[in-house]
Each structure stands twice: as structure tokens, then as C-alpha cells.
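Researcher: Good morning. I'm working through a list of sequences from a screen, and I'd like to move beyond sequence-only analysis. For each chain I'm collecting a predicted structure so we can compare shapes side by side. This is the next one on the list. No need for commentary yet; just the structure.
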Amino acid sequence: MWIRSQNRKSLTDCDSFAVERFFEQYQVVTLSSRSGISVALGIYSSEEKALRVLDEIQAIVESKQFCVVDNVDLGNYVLHNGVQVYQMPQNEEDF
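Model: Good morning. C-alpha cells for this chain:
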């Protein structure tokens, strides 16, 4: 899943996420399986806000629609129906 960071400075292909506490703030991070380093995607003033963002990401992942294309010689292929990019929301007071 592609995620655009809260500050709009990075576009990252992410496959796992977590909420981590960083001083008095909470970050939604992606966990890089290649480097083992977590990359902050958005920073929120409360754990509740960060978890709501994680809930939104989960809902998008669960609602992906796929189509199956049959290839007689090579079997079945599953293709994603379009590319989604999720924009991390700002840390708004009413969020």
C-alpha cells in the first residue's frame, strides 16, 4: 500500500504499520522489512488519534477489490484493480 507522509515529503510502499510513542507524541510508522528501521508517516498528539489513523488504513486494506485474470497456459493471476495512495491526515484538534 502506498502512503504519502503527513508532511507530504515522502511516498512510501508500506506493508506493515505500528503506533509508537515518541516522547509525548504518537507516531504511525511503517516497519521496513528490508532495513528493520521504522519510518514515521504521521505524528499525533494522542494515542487515540494515531489509532484512528491506523483503523482507517486497516479499513482500506480490508476493502481492496481484486480481479482475477485467467491465463490458460500459466494459471491464474491476481491483479490489483488500480493503485491507492493514502494521505496521512494532519493532527487536527477535531480529528
